[in-house]
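Bench notes, afternoon.
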Amino acid sequence: MKLTLRKRLRLILFIAIILWMALIFWFSSAGHEVSSGQSERVARSVQYITNISFSEAVVRKAAHVFLYFVLGILLTLLVRTYRIRWRSVVLWAVGIACAYAATDETHQSLVGGRSGQVSDVLLDTAAACAGAVVIAGGYMFIYKLHKNQKCDRI
């Protein structure tokens, strides 16, 4: 059975999403001491490189934003392969990311020394939404640019 380009892209994106979600799950599985140590090392590295000091809390929130921003991008790209309207694409991608963020925080609350925060679910959802909007906006910009170029040729 030969896979079309669209189906191959779906498969690649699906695998990338599963791996990315596994990475998020792995970070959530770390106990408080391990997680704090990781955040402190990142904060020290950033301070060494930029000479700007960040607290552990800022590093943790930035990690949430980065992880879910990328998840939002990946989910948007995957959902778009089904050729549905952009509004629906963004809603599906953000909805899936929100559901995953909620399950991730629930999982995190079961890890020793960690707690699940509703505010983290909201932050994660906002980051995924930003990723989805960046991709949707980029696609729409390219589409309009391409459409205008065709009109200029006629």
